[in-house]
TrEMBL record:
GO terms for cellular component: mitochondrial inner membrane. InterPro entries: Mt_import_IM_translocase_Tim54. It comes from the Eukaryota. Residues 1-60, 280-368, 419-446 are annotated as: Disordered. Residues 306-316, 352-368 have a biased composition (Pro residues). This is Mitochondrial import inner membrane translocase subunit TIM54. It comes from Kockovaella imperatae.
Length: 569
């Protein structure tokens, strides 16, 4: 009897109809290590192993011979390649800047050597006698507006002009200019002394020490004319021309700028002592005769009290102080020879000289000759906005070197022409013909555009500083007077201080120093400000000379430097 076919049992499933893992088909059994061994792998064909590529590249040629000298293989096998983009940019920028600097300094050196060779023969020219003095020029370098360094213009001269003067054996002297207007005041004083001595109003200068060679005044004047005046920058030109105008065209009264400022300050009443004014007695008040006299300590006299801390008691009339009293005697002045105008041997020191006749105040005609002028362009870069121009100047030093060398060459070779005034007229006595050019009074006019804007506020700053100082000075003056009168005691700071107590004279000296700076700066500002033209007078036409090389000029010097040296026979 046939068996019935087996019925399949349904496998359990989850709600989604997916059979569970327990009902999954069984994976093929993996024989364990304890089961029968697996069949052996099919045999491979026997073959030789492939050789590994060599990590060392063989060296050929001279590299093979250098390999045994100890040089690393990385050096022998190095192959140059182009740098990256960033390195290319960096090397290009650095190389360009370095070359610009190197080429500029190379040209500066070449220009300097070229012009030194042109003027060196002058130092080998023979002198008339052994003690003859060389040529001497005066250098004027005014302060650049808003520049704290008042020596910058003179340093410019010493760097770009002085080397050629030294090579030609030419001496120089400098005029210091700590303030605006200092050059003008110095020139005015020098010219005024010269005029007064010529008129007999002032005694001539006599050296206290005997000189080995007495210089004749005419020779000294001739030597001054052979020298010259170096004008560095436009501010120097303005102050120089203003000094000439004040000195030669002004009056010949005795004038001292610092003394005149001191006399002005003495009259303004800043140091006058305030005296307490008592009210007038009323009708019912007792008369002054009925009141007891006030004590001596409450006197309202303006003289300081003898018991004041600033005034110790006078020394005794006996003892050491009396034996050394001759030390306090002032020296007796000795009259100079010749005597100045208006003085007499028997006249007292307080006698004022008679008034100077008006005829002596008339300017001389024609004006005495002046040394020729040498113009040296000069600009000082100040301020953050001028930094790009500072960088440009750093890489174009050759322009200033050449400008200074040409100016020095014109002075050394003594090639002059007439000074061109504002009218542009040129005298017929010019040493060479030249085309129409701008007047010399417009020298470096464009440089005034480089002044800082703060320069326009200089008068206001001076006025503010003076106002603040005077307000504090009034309190300090009153404190000193109160201490002298015994109205206050010494403070702890004054008692501990090792310095002497401040006196009225100390305050006067302090104020005078400040006023000299303020008044001098205000006066100089009016001279050098851009709106002020260069001082000029019709009498100056044809009077001044200017050093300048003519076009196509060829120096007349020996071909060999040895020709300039005298040889003994």
């Amino acid at each position: 009897m046939a068996e019935p076919p087996p019925t399949s049992t349904p496998s359990p499933s989850n709600a989604a109809g997916i059979p569970s893992s327990s009902a999954s088909p069984a994976s093929p059994a993996v024989p364990s290590s304890s089961s029968a061994p697996s069949p052996a792998a099919p045999p491979t064909l026997a073959s030789d192993p492939l050789p590994k590529p060599s990590s060392k590249e063989p060296l050929t040629g001279f590299r093979a011979s250098l390999e045994h000298t100890g040089i690393p293989r990385s050096v022998l096998l190095w192959k140059p390649r182009l740098p990256s983009r960033n390195w290319t940019i960096f090397l290009t920028v650095v190389g360009t800047i370095s070359y610009l600097y190197y080429d500029d300094r190379k040209q500066c050196k070449r220009i300097k050597e070229e012009y030194l060779e042109k003027v060196r023969y002058r130092s080998m020219e023979p002198t008339k006698y052994s003690l003859e003095l060389p040529r001497k020029v005066k250098v004027i370098g005014a302060k650049w507006p808003e520049d704290d360094d008042d020596d910058r213009a003179l340093r410019y001269f010493r760097k770009y002009v002085k080397p050629y003067l030294m090579a030609a054996a030419i001496d120089y002297e400098q005029m210091s200019a700590p303030l605006h207007g200092s050059i003008t005041r110095q020139l005015q004083k020098q010219i005024l002394q010269r005029r007064r001595r010529a008129l007999g109003l002032e005694a001539a200068f006599e050296s206290a020490l005997p000189l080995p060679v007495q210089v004749d005044p005419k020779e000294a004047e001739q030597r001054e004319m052979e020298g010259g005046t170096v004008i560095v920058g436009r501010a120097s030109l303005k102050e120089y021309m203003e000094g000439l105008k004040r000195g030669w065209l002004g009056r010949v009264d005795d004038w001292d700028w610092e003394k005149s400022i001191g006399e002005t300050l003495e009259k303004d009443g800043m140091f006058e002592k305030k005296v307490d004014v008592f009210p007038e007695p009323e009708a019912d008040a007792p008369t002054p005769s009925d009141q007891p006299p006030p004590p001596a300590s409450t006197s309202t006299s303006t003289s300081p009290s003898p018991s004041s801390p600033l005034y110790p008691p006078p020394p005794s009339s006996t003892g050491l102080s009396s034996s050394l009293s001759f030390l306090s005697r002032p020296p007796q002045p000795r009259p100079q020879s010749p005597m100045p105008y208006g003085s007499s041997p028997g006249a007292g020191s307080s006698a004022s000289p008679p008034p100077i006749p008006e005829s002596m105040h008339t300017p001389p005609y024609p004006l005495p000759p002046q040394p020729p002028i040498l113009f040296v362009p000069f600009v000082s870069r100040l301020g953050f906005k001028q930094v790009p121009w500072m960088i440009y100047d750093f890489f174009t030093e050759r322009h200033r070197v050449k400008s200074g060398a040409e100016a020095a060459l014109a002075l050394i070779e003594a090639q002059t022409r007439d000074f061109r005034g504002p009218t542009g007229a040129v005298s017929s006595s010019s040493s060479f013909s030249e085309p129409s050019r701008e007047p010399d009074t417009d020298f470096e006019t464009a440089s005034e555009s480089w002044y800082k804007k703060a320069f326009k506020d200089l008068p206001e700053r001076m006025a503010t500083a003076r106002k603040d100082y005077n307000a504090k000075l009034a309190e300090r003056v009153q404190d000193v007077y109160d201490l002298e009168d015994g109205k206050r005691q010494l403070t702890d700071a004054e008692m501990k201080s090792t310095k002497s107590l401040t006196t009225i004279q100390d305050l006067k000296d302090e104020r005078k120093k400040k006023e000299l700076r303020w008044m001098g700066s205000e006066e100089g500002y009016d001279i050098v400000k851009p709106d002020t033209p260069v001082a000029w007078d019709e009498r100056f036409d044809g009077w001044l000379k200017v050093y300048e090389l003519p076009a196509g000029w060829v120096p007349d010097r020996p071909q060999d430097l040895n020709d300039a040296i005298p040889h003994e026979v």
